Amino acid sequence: MGDAPVERAPLVIERLVGGDRSVLHGVARQLADETGQEVTRVMLLLQELVEGLVASAADEGYLDFDEGHPFWGQFTLEEARVVVRALAGMGFRYHARDGWLGGRQPGPGELALALAYGGYDVRGVRGMPSASSIARLFDGARVATEDHLAVRAPSMTLDQVLSMLGGRADPLGELWDSWGRIRPLLLADPPSP
Q: Which end of the chain is more exposed for a tag (fewer CB within 10 A), N or C?
């Protein structure tokens, strides 16, 4: 009989990408004290880091779907993400906050092609959305930034984070200059309230 998985509290970075404002304020104050920067400046940089991480995860198809969704519910999480990445590779990118980027929405034919790229025969897929219902295809989906971090930047090294962010890293030079101080804070357990 195997051991049960150990439950742990989310790390600071996981709380930040989850939108925890109190952790953001606490980390910003601590970093400001350590680096001599203004709290508001550090908070802005941390917010930009979080937004970049979330956008990167969305770009790479790291979404979580409602298991009860009539279309996505028939796939495992990884299978659904393969289809999302295939759509993105065809130029159809969806962001939870902004919708279909550039207003460019796939039709049923493009969705069928994305399924084929993912190795699925569209004839065996239930609940294929119509052209009018594709606009709601991602209802209930959320960006799984924590999963993306676990794959692309598990140790949050500077190289890992820069690679994950790509061009989004450019305006965050002040963070990179202090990464040796920032990284341990992001990988720590959040302080108790």
A: N
